[in-house]
Amino acid sequence: MRNIIFILLFVVAFSYTYAEFEFAGNIKNYKVFDNRIEFELTNSKFNLYVIDNNIIRFRFTNQKDFSLAPSYAITYPLPSKSKFSLNDQEDRLIIKTDELIINISKKPCRISIYDTNNNLLNQDEESFGVAFDNDEVRCFKKLFNDEKFYGLGEKTDGLLRNGKQYKLWNTDFPAYTSRSDELYQSIPFFIGIRNYKAYGIFFDNTYKSYFNFGASNNRFYWFGAEGGEMDYYFIYGPDIKRVISDYTKLTGRIHLPPLWSLGYQQSRYSYYPESLVRTIANTFRERKIPCDVIYFDIHYMDEYRVFTWNKERFPDPEKLLRDLKNLGFKVVTIIDPGVKVDSNYFVAQEGVKNNLFARYPDGTFYQGEVWPSWAYFPDFTKEATRTWWGEKIGGFLNQGVEGIWNDMNEPAVWGQNFPDIVLFDDNGFTASHKKIHNVYGLSMAKATYDGLRKYSNKRHFILTRAGFSGIQRYAAVWTGDNIANDEHLYLACTMSLNMGLSGVPFIGSDVGGFIGEPSDELIIRWYQLGAFTPFFRGHSAIDTRFREPYTFGDFVEPDIKRAIQLRYKLLPFWYNEFYNSTQTGLPIMRAMFVNYQYDENSYYHDAQYQFMIGENLLVAPVLNSYDKFKKLYLPAGRWYDWDENKVIDGGKWIIKEVPINKIPIFLKEGGIIPMQEVLNYVGEKNVDSLQFLIFPSAKSEYTFYEDDGISYDNENGKYSLTKFLIEQNSKSIKLSVEKIKNDYQSSVKKYNLKFVGIDKPRKINLNKKEIKNYSYEANTLMIDLDVSNFITLELIY
Ligand code: GLC
């Protein structure tokens, strides 16, 4: 008898440990609603939502019901009604929208998605489809050998995801390498491209998740998670741009940041005491190296207590911040989530009293060790905590702080294993750390952003290390603790491109590398890249030598300064691209293939690391410290080589000499680039004239955006738009400039138009009258104009 019990116990234990995947099952019945179809399957429930003609949500659970907890990522409201047809055939259901045909077999339930020309776009693996193993959920898709995969946000191994498996679990990983997997951000969104047609899949699941793009098999790709639902959105393009744009329609787009945050930002772990901060600020101004921001890393605090100052190092922070402001500097302070366990400390007291920290299931507060030693962790998934935190941030801003830098919010603790059993509010639904871990940073950023919005109508800047899909709504992101070596210069580019492809446009790296010492050549190349990444900050670790641009000596400083100055010259252009991204969700710094999707070359070799800023400016960065020549690819069309002032025909690879002071940049024909004089900081003086670099093509258009760069008035329509239209034929080049929205009074009174790559015209008419005051030299024509609501200019040949 005892033996039998023993064997039974063994069998039970064995079958539990080695449970097998159970598949979603056969369709038993279904019900059609206004915006969805609800299916009863033998082993699960399945809801198909038609979000739009090209966006379908597929949601499966093997639980009794779907979760009612709101998504952390999706902000787009579910339409209550949508347009689709359903055709019930014997063995399958055919659902049609204006753009997609979804073919679902009944036994078993398997999904195939086609475009309206019956081209297969995506298909469940025929034997597997959606599967469950205890809490684990998976979706198996057919792998085509000619499909390319991109995305997943902050990943280090180049751009192409094929043949590899990835894990998403926010991780503090100082000195990561190009072979590391989990990092600070989790973005469960990827793009598939086959026959040049793109679709995207967003897997809305916050648990530890996995994505396998044919690693170790040639049959399927799969994605899944250790808990939650199999809830994914299929987004059809076929344009890559539309896929990213629609993904960010679902998960949100950036708000226009303050203009100063597009300038150069200077950081170090850490600048203290006060006298050092003053020296740094004064030296930037003395040496006329533009800079807008100084960062205060953890040493400004009183023993790392958030929302406090160390009074020995900073006896009068308000005065210091006022003085810095007078020098044109904004101050950004680090705010980590860990609140020091200390019964005499007001933040700890308030959090304990009001039950705002994460708890163990027995009700006691979790304590983890981090900079301040033992710390509580605010439960940012609880509304009361977010409101409280927002108020704390507001109070801190009263002292003159202009931006908040969220760090260690993976959340990171020494030992790197925040216990899974810790509980969070989950917006009233209660969930364990398993579900909340990946959205802890996102929730902290939300608390910070909402707090700042309530605090004033002024735009502030938020930077975060950790995040999840949707983080772009609240904060800029930097790529964490990198290293001062060539590998990381390359990563600074590829990781930023990956983030852009994954809906996070405001991105950059620690310029120069956080850990270790860069060589002279490396630091120059890094500043040259940094000047073309949306977020541009120099930062370095506690044990590195001082790294401010002027500390490198005569060989290096002028080249770094030139790169920073170029950034400031291009600020109107950058700001415009940020504005465009608020409207489209597209990356600002974007992998070239986003714009040249149908050009095979743009996906390969070094061309895949070339990038565009917006539509027409191509940057082919030098991504190591030693190259003196660069092989680069120019897509078809004519290109203006910026520093050599010459026009090159594209559709080919070229080799360009790249001495250390050169950044290879090219302007596509039709491109228009607004520029301004170099200032030492944003707002140093009113900008009253702008230069427009114009490289005419048969027809092109550019819309130029202006607002105050400071307040949220832009969201109430206080901005202006000026449309530039160029038309060129063999007899003339016509430019019309028209204010199409005029609800912001710009300080700009003069335009300097600089046409490049053109022959000398016979005659020039301004508003139909001939003018003579222009200059022409070396294929370049310069004309100064007064700004008015409507201008037509005709270059006649
Ligand atoms: C982390 C951050 C780094 C910061 C340091 C001290 O390592 O990633 O940027 O300087 O903490 O706060």
- Which strand order does the major sheet show? 33-32-30-27-23-22-21-35-34
Number of E-type strands: 54
> What do the pLDDT scores average to?
96
CATH fold field value of the largest domain: Immunoglobulin-like
User: Number of DSSP helices?
Assistant: 13
Biggest sheet, open or closed, and with what strands and sense? Answer: 9 strands, parallel
Distance between the termini: 105 Å
Helix content: 10-25%
Q: Which word captures the global form?
A: globular
Q: Identify the CATH architecture of the largest domain.
A: Sandwich
Structural domain tally: 4
Provide keyphrases for this structure.
single chain, Immunoglobulin-like, alpha+beta, 797 residues, binds alpha-D-glucopyranose, TIM Barrel
Explain briefly what this protein structure is.
This protein is an alpha+beta fold and 797 residues long.
What does the secondary structure layout of this molecule look like, with pairings?
Layout: H1 2-17, E1 22-23, E2 27-32, E3 36-41, E4 45-52, E5 55-61, E6 85-88, E7 92-96, E8 100-105, E9 110-115, E10 120-123, E11 130-133, E12 136-142, E13 147-151, E14 165-168, E15 185-186, E16 189-194, E17 197-203, E18 209-212, E19 220-225, E20 230-236, H2 240-251, E21 265-266, H3 274-286, E22 293-296, H4 317-326, E23 330-335, E24 339-340, H5 346-353, E25 368-370, E26 373-376, H6 383-397, E27 403-406, E28 423-424, E29 431-432, H7 433-436, H8 440-455, E30 461-464, E31 467-468, E32 476-478, H9 486-501, E33 507-508, E34 510-511, H10 520-530, E35 537-538, H11 557-569, H12 571-584, E36 589-591, H13 592-595, E37 611-613, E38 617-619, E39 629-634, E40 638-641, E41 646-649, E42 652-657, E43 665-668, E44 672-675, E45 689-694, E46 699-706, E47 720-728, E48 732-742, E49 750-756, E50 763-766, E51 769-770, E52 774-777, E53 780-786, E54 790-796
Parallel strand pairs: 15-31, 21-22, 21-35, 22-23, 23-27, 27-30, 30-32, 32-33, 34-35, 45-49
Antiparallel strand pairs: 1-11, 2-3, 3-4, 4-5, 5-20, 6-7, 7-8, 8-9, 9-10, 11-12, 12-19, 13-16, 14-18, 16-17, 17-20, 18-19, 24-26, 25-26, 28-29, 36-37, 37-38, 38-43, 39-42, 40-41, 40-43, 44-45, 46-47, 47-48, 48-54, 49-53, 50-51, 50-54, 52-53
Helix pairs in contact: 6-8, 9-10, 10-11
Bound molecules: alpha-D-glucopyranose (GLC).
